[in-house]
Amino acid sequence: MKDALLDSRGGQLLVGLAAGAAGVAGSYAATGYTPTFVASPIERTLSRTMPGEIVTFAITYLGSLGQQLNLATAVALTWLLFGAGITAAVLAGRETNNRLLPTVGTAVFTWLVTAAITRTLVLALGPVVPAVAVVALAQAFDAYRGSTDPISSKRRRALSTVGVALGATAVGVSVGQRGSSMGEKAPPLDAEGVDNEDLQAKLDTAERNSFDIDGIEPLVSENFFEVDINSIDPNAKAEDYTLSITGAVESEETFSYDELQEMEAVNQFSTLRCVGDQLNGDKIDTALWTGVPLQRLVEEAGPQSDCDCVLLKAKDGYEVEFPMEAFNRGVAVYGMNGNLLPRGHGYPVRAVIPGHWGEVNTKWLTEIELLNREVDGYWEQRGWEGTGPVKPTATLKHDTMLDDGQRQLAGHAYAGLRGVSKVEVSTDGGSSWSEATLSDPLPAAEGDGPAEDAWRQWQYSYDPPGSSHTAVVRMVDRDGNVQTSEETDPAPTGPSGWVSKEFNS
Ligand SMILES: Nc1nc2c(c(=O)[nH]1)N[C@H]1C(S)=C(S)[C@@H](COP(=O)(O)O)O[C@H]1N2
Ligand SMILES: [Mo]
Fold this sequence. Notes:
Blueprint: H1 9-31, H2 39-49, H3 52-62, H4 64-95, H5 101-118, H6 128-143, H7 154-179, H8 196-209, E1 242-247, E2 253-256, H9 257-262, E3 266-273, E4 284-293, H10 294-301, E5 309-314, E6 319-323, H11 324-327, E7 331-336, E8 339-340, E9 350-352, E10 365-371, E11 393-394, E12 398-401, E13 407-414, E14 420-426, E15 434-435, E16 437-438, E17 456-462, E18 469-477, E19 499-503
Parallel strand pairs: 1-10
Antiparallel strand pairs: 1-2, 3-4, 4-7, 5-6, 5-10, 7-8, 7-9, 11-13, 12-13, 13-17, 14-15, 14-18, 16-17, 18-19
Helix pairs in contact: 1-4, 1-6, 1-7, 2-4, 3-4, 4-5, 5-6, 6-7
Bound molecules: ligand MTE and molybdenum atom (MO).
The ligand Nc1nc2c(c(=O)[nH]1)N[C@H]1C(S)=C(S)[C@@H](COP(=O)(O)O)O[C@H]1N2 binds next to loops.
Protein name: Molybdopterin-dependent oxidoreductase
Domain Moybdenum cofactor oxidoreductase dimerisation: 395-485
Organism: Haloarcula salinisoli
């Protein structure tokens, strides 16, 4: 048996790790980027058990990179777990001189581990085939030992094994990607309860009212930010979807997706902003949301909450608690900008709660529990205080020189239910202020007024002084309150302060 690849410890480990990588890729090929991918539950456990400081650091400074690192760690851990088990099977086969043990052991181990982690029996076969194939090939290559075949040298057998494993991994990854719904555009909304004319008219108004300025989002965002506690989103099916109203109610109620779509819907503009946004950051966007008022659903159950507070629960394990008063203004949303809700934004159904920080806008909403006393949700357990009203903000996202020699500045302003009455710009570091031009407001959900919870765009042009100066932006709410100049970090209550930018001429 001398000089067999599978006889040396190094060779066993190499084959174990190569087969492990093929196994992880095989699982991905079978499931795509969904919660049944073998690394997904591990990634969820990581995100749930990670200390609050790390989660806070990741959301504030790394953005989605934090989630990618988390996912990479989960994939690496899965790979090591597979690798260790397969190496042990190979080793045991050699020790007992049993030719079947390496492949059978690999099959049983990868299947059992995957089935236990993902709780699926058939999809758990995904890792088995490629992992067993790599081990079997390594055994077959070893059989050529001593012949004149090109793979007779040990080094070549090792390289061939790794090569086959890499090939299997590449195939697995590309198959998995094809089966994933990432980047897919959501299909158009087609629900009984929706007034499609009203929907289209509102989208047209949003387009008409948006400034034609490059580099700032139109009034309906083209690229809506995403914040998730996990990097792999739930992929629920509408047919199986139910929304339950539980807890302090007269009678618990359950609504199916069809039932929700049959109820009379509202089309409502709302801006979402994450409490972990930066000053002048990008975690703020606006959409036209379509769905059923939450209050109507809860009324059917007969609310009896002692604390007038509610806990929203979601399919990804997310939870958030906040006052009934804010909840009662909210909508159980299944449409976004005239299309079905995309998976990344909470398909099939999410909550949209006007005026409060993004975190209460629960995606993949499954349960509304009325409480008798307050509790902490996912982010509150990690030190954030982000369930209340948003802080006012005015961003500066664009500056260009116009043909007439003026400099044009532009951005957005948003203050939740406090409303934006004006944006003021200073080009002398805050000594004197001028009023910027605001985009016409988006229309209200019902009636002729302005949307109660939507941002405005602003623009301002001035003659540059030819020497260095600082431009500063601030907004004023409907009651005449000027946004505070005091700068705070995002954690724990959200960023505040005036945005400024220096120019050399
Ligand atoms: N189920 C669930 N809902 C969620 C989250 C989440 O991770 N899981 N993130 C929340 C946070 S912190 C924000 S800011 C908003 C972001 O919504 P978006 O991803 O659609 O922009 O969703 C909220 N709802
Ligand atoms: Mo958030």
